[in-house]
Amino acid sequence: MKKIFFTLLVVSLAFVGCDSDDDTTSVSPDAGVLSGGPFTFLVDGTPDMVTGITTDADAVGTNSSFIITDADGSILGLPPTLEALNGVDFDGAGVGSCAIYYLRYETISGLEAGSNINDLTGDFDTSNSIIVTRDQGANAGVLTGDNFVFCVDGTPDMVSGISTDPDAVGTNRTFVITDADGTILGLPPGVAELEGVDFDGAGAGVCLIWYLRYEDGLTGLTAGENVDGLNGVFSFSNSISVTRNEPIGGAITGGPFNFTVDGTPDMVSGIALDGTQTGSLKTWVITDDAGNVLGLPPTLEALEGVDFDGAGTGVCLIWYLRYEDGLQGLEAGENVANLDGCYNFSNSISVTRS
Fold first, then answer.
1. Does a cis peptide bond (omega within 30 degrees of 0) precede residue 29?
2. Where would you tag: which of 28, 281, 300, 311 has the fewest CB atoms within 10 A of its CB?
3. Bridge partners (DSSP) listed for residue 22
4. How far apart are the first and last CA of the chain?
């Protein structure tokens, strides 16, 4: 039995030692298994890179590269190394899906961006693919509607005609009302609730209306917080402004005045404002005791230059007026009861001409 085993061993060794006339050893490329992922990103303007991908230690082939394709196999990129692959920003590719392959090859044709991975020819091997899904992040789109200008006068002021973008996306949605500094004042969930907000009650100032689309997990979306503190996946639309004007005529002091109509000029003096006045535009208004406008001195200096002796006997009233653009009916001969717009009168000072 020992003699037979020895003979077989010698024969086996002799067979292994035989060599043919061809000394070239051909090795078929083998990309092996690509590990890591899959990955899911949101397209939100924030760079998205893959990490943790590893190639097979037993992969063989003189040349190597990674291949990134779209869902149809079209080659989008050829990162030559793992480091280069980890530097690819998939957010910039927009919504869709990519596939990452590892490639080992000896000779190959068609390996270029724009070609299809299915059209490669040569001596090569590709690994399995890792899928990178790029989902649509929140996008609030464009909010349409005019800017609004209201007068704070005790009459309810509501917005209307605002519409959201039909292409807006995001699991959750709401309107956000902020002040001019971004502090959240209210969160109407829909158009109906937004149009029910009385902006007159907010007093003078400027509000901004935004449309917000967002994903679960958003933090900081609370009245009193600032939108700069939101944290999560979200998107704001453009804003629509709501300007709330509140002219204040305030109080005026001085007088009353009593003059004798005798041909001697009679001017008022010592009239002063109390400093509480607000409003974009201003003027003094002189009316008769029925409210008919007799004159509109633009300044206190001009008011003190009015000769009341020339008006004859009767009673005049001096008012201070603050108002906003668009006021109608402010002219001599009209009655202040017919003014239309955003305005506020001070108290009046009487001028009696005996």
1. no
2. 28
3. none
4. 155
Q: Tokens 């005026």 identify what position?
A: 252
Which 3-state string (H, E, C) describes the chain? CHHHHHHHHHHHHHHHCCCCCCCCCCCCCECCCCECCCEEEEECCCCCCCCCCECCCCCECCEEEEEEEECCCEEEECCCCHHHHHCCCHHHHCCEEEEEEEEEEEEEECCCCCCEHHHCEEEEEECCCEEEEEEECCECCCCECCCEEEECCCCCCCCCCCECCCCCECCEEEEEEEECCCEEEECCCCHHHHCCCCHHHHCCEEEEEEEEEECCCCECCCCCCEHHHCECCEEECCCEEEEEECCECCCEECCCEEECCCCCCCCCCCCEECCCCECCEEEEEEEECCCEEEECCCCHHHHCCCCHHHHCCEEEEEEEEEECCCCECCCCCCEHHHCECCEEECCCEEEEEC
Give which of 91, 125, 208, 110 is closest to 159, Cα–Cα.
Answer: 208
Rounded to whole angstroms, the Cα distance separating 214 from 142 reads 15
Q: Tell me the per-residue pLDDT of 260-293, one tens digit each, with 9 for 90 and over.
A: 999 999 999 999 999 999 999 999 999 999 999 9
What is the pLDDT at residue 134? 92
Nearest to 303 by CA among 247, 346, 354: 346
Cβ atoms of residues 294 and 286 within 8 Å: yes
Q: CA separation (Å) from 141 to 234, 320, 352? A: 12, 46, 64
80 conformational bin, left if phi > 0, alpha if psi -120 to 50, beta if neither: alpha
Beta-sheet pairing, 130-136 with 39-43: parallel
Extract the tokens encoding 321: 């007026």
Identify the residue with better confidence: 3 or 177. 177
Task: Reply yes or no on whether the pLDDT at 2 is more than 50.
Answer: no
